[in-house]
Design a protein that fits this description.
Oligomer: single chain
CATH architecture of the largest domain: 2-Layer Sandwich
CATH class of the largest domain: Alpha Beta
Number of helices: 9
Structural class: alpha+beta
Helix content: 10-25%
Number of domains: 3
CATH topology of the largest domain: Pseudouridine synthase
Length: 316
């Protein structure tokens, strides 16, 4: 007989407005304990100095974390000109200074070079693994860290304001893997100065936004009660943009068992209506029962729905 998992079979997403001065891992631990959940994870780290949307998956929702992480994200942040920091944010040690302060017009003119597909070297104080070790652990240990450049996508970038010569406030909509700290560092160099992020707030991840997030202290005040569970969102919340399909009882049983189901004409018609384009080969589909209970994520292959992530709602 298998060992019973600790905690309760709680499944869904909780969207926290992360406060300053706490790590994402610490927030996940607090939320997991509040809900007494068996499993927990999050959709993208926020540094201790950052605030905003931290989407936390509980139970079976952890199987949808990659989809939330792949979603576009919106950040609002302030750059401080004239100093370089080894972490590219306010928590790092000063590595250099510059008397140059870019004007509002110069910053505006630089934005096109930092929009679209761009190459950036991640900050050395990042969670990227180098030979099995986190880069930030190596950097804190005094080792020289060399990270390879990566291509990221900045969908939109706009200058909101320049409150004074030393600061500029921006908002960007970006894809997976983007480091705002690297974006500011590189823009500063482009403008002939040095710079770092002194304030950072994530306002959106896919379908999760700050306006509907709950503050951590407010959630803690609710305790492990019905009021807290009102902030538990469905597993499907992270699957925005993936076509959904209601399957009948027999098909649901087959999919839950890891078996494929034949895509009959009526199912195919519904999928064609749900997506644009004629080629559905390889399409990912979110399957649920007619009552709305998640069943599986399946790929459409050779006329069949083949499950590759099955949702199991046991009792622990």
């Amino acid at each position: 007989m298998g060992r019973r998992k600790k905690g309760s079979p709680v499944n869904g997403w909780v969207v926290i407005d992360k406060p300053l001065g706490i790590t994402s891992t610490q927030v996940v631990g607090i939320v997991r304990r509040l809900f007494d959940a068996q499993k927990a994870g999050h959709a993208g780290t926020l540094d201790p100095m950052a605030t905003g949307v931290l989407a936390i998956a509980l139970g079976e929702a952890t199987k949808t974390v990659p989809y939330a992480m792949d979603a576009s994200k919106t950040y609002r942040f302030t750059a401080c000109w004239g100093e370089g920091r080894d972490s590219d944010d306010a928590e790092g040690a000063v590595t250099g200074t510059s008397p140059v302060r870019p004007t509002h017009e110069q910053i505006e003119a630089a934005l096109p070079a930092f929009t679209g597909e761009i190459s950036q070297v991640p900050p050395i104080y990042s969670a990227i693994k180098v030979q099995g070790e986190r880069a930030y652990d190596l950097a804190r240990g005094g080792e020289t860290v060399t990270l390879e450049p990566r291509t990221v996508f900045i969908e939109e970038a706009r200058l909101i304001s320049t409150p004074d010569a030393d600061h500029a406030e921006f908002e960007i909509l970006c894809g997976k893997g983007t480091y705002v700290r690297a974006w500011v560092r590189d823009m500063a160099r482009h403008l002939g100065t040095l710079g770092y992020v002194c304030e950072l707030r994530r306002t959106r991840i896919g379908g999760f936004c700050a306006e509907t997030a709950i503050g951590l202290e407010k959630l803690k005040a609710l305790g492990h009660g019905p009021a807290a569970f009102e902030h538990l969102r469905p597993i499907s919340t992270a699957l925005d943009g993936i076509p959904a399909l209601a399957v009948t009882g027999p098909d649901a049983v087959r999919l839950k068992s890891g078996n494929s189901v034949l895509v009959r004409a009526n199912i195919f018609a519904r999928l064609v209506d749900a997506v644009s384009g004629d080629d559905l080969q390889g399409l990912t589909v979110f399957c649920s029962t007619t009552e709305g209970e998640p069943v599986a994520l399946a790929a459409l292959e050779q006329g069949e729905l083949r499950p590759f992530r099955v949702f199991n709602f046991g009792t622990g």
